[in-house]
Amino acid sequence: MATAGAQRRLRLAATGRGRRGAVPAAGPGGTHMSSTPAGPDPAAPGCPLPRLPAGDAQLALHLPLFDQVDAHHLDAVRSVREDNETGLLTSADLHVAATVLRLTGHTGADLAAVIARVVAAARAGSSCLRLNPEQARLLRSHQQPDGPGPGTATGTVALVGTADRPAPIRLVGERAYLDRYWRLERAVAAAVLARATTLIPVDPAALRRSVHTHLPGPDQHWQRVAAAMAATRPICLLVGGPGTGKTTTIAQIVQVLYDICDEPPHIGLAAPTGKAATRMQSSLADRLAVTAPATSSPMLIGLRARTVHGLLGMRPGRPPRFNAANPLPHDVVIVDETSMVSLTHLAAVLAATRPDARLILVGDPDQLASVDVGAVLADLVNRPVDPAHLAAARLPAVFASGGGDGTEPGDSVTGQFPDPADVARAVTRLRIGWRFTRPIAELAEAIRGADEDMVGRFLDRYRAGREPGSGPGTGSAVRWWPLAADQLGRLTEDDLPVLAGDVRGQHRRVLAAASCGDAREALRALQSHQILTAHRQGPFGAQRWAHLASPARCGGIQRPGHSQRPGHRPVQR
Fold it and tell me: Among 323, 473, 373, 368, which Cα is nearest to 10's?
């Protein structure tokens, strides 16, 4: 966020296929080209094009959208040609840039190139483009109207604005935004800040009693933090990696809210996709049935997960049914998989949620991002915090096992304290993985943090067997089998005895359960061992490892003539 965290920007990879991250874009380069009227579109006789600046932007209009632009038309601006060849710029980007220039009365191939890159950044999922000094100077020179232009009666209009001055392009420091995304970022930042710095009055004794009833264990400290945050703030960001218990924590938060509210809260559930919404509702129902079997039925009545579109009443060509003027009726709104929610949709959710309602955003900022513009969850979780807000970052003392009356948000059992910056951000990070063991969690954390040294030390430790039971062939949760590149093409099941043994055992358990008609146990056995690959083909791909791990090659039983369909293979890509 411009005012609430690191920006989402395009990262230019060597292949030119980068998607999100910082974008030090290439310099404009080239020379200005004279303006000439555009001729009629040969693809549509009798339908003349509007007047456009001559050069790349004009010529791109004669090319199919999203096709690479012929290099002959881009020789005048070398950097544009290079970006087009790598797929970073398309004719659609140049088309939009040309239209913006025409509407504001400006000309220039260099200017069109910079605007096209801003458009391309948005198309790739970034809300802004970080400019180099030359590009920033070029845009600043067009912040004021500068004489007559072909599209206006009195001259050109401002093409480039600032944080306080509207214009098609907003230049804020070294970052260039399309005006729409600048306004959306500001709206989200203001709404989140207002909610994060507001407290909802609750009965401290009732909150403490409920939290310790539903979350009594010393290993549930961060769940208690999440429950206190959700109970006392109009917004709570619950984040954590896979297997950290986000769904279970949501169920526990629902129970706490039912305890402390005078009336049963009206809860709305949403997720970015229909599949995610269905999974959310099913998982929440299962968790409530386990954690609160006696009281889960009233809680589940009316709990219906929907897509974000469905929750807001979005219809093509119409404004959302629910908005700031007509807010959602829910007392609590819980959005799962928030990392996949776009900037546009999160702005709409914030606008439609009543100021006195609780908004709980759940997700993993390191997982899938939105296909549209914005990595909003990651930005909100890591946004800078005003020092004045740090001093006021306090949570009710609901963590001490004895139910003490202290005021600091610490845990007398574990000695763990939430980061004051996270408290100010209304963020709770679930840090304990329940789906896998500590070594796997450590390795995953090192990989996510791009800590090459830690990954190297970790693998060396487990290869050398320096920890008890950590070497190859032992019962450790992590085993590293280093293989040379030339070995991969010649691998057989004999080279991977542990893998072969695991697959044989799994296959026997699946067959035994299926033969007895125990479908649940068969599915549980099927899920007990999986091989995950990053690619579909090649020596590290799913096809190769599915072949190595297939029950037939590992000594399992397979019906004659039975060919495994992709969904039945023990490998996932």
Answer: 373
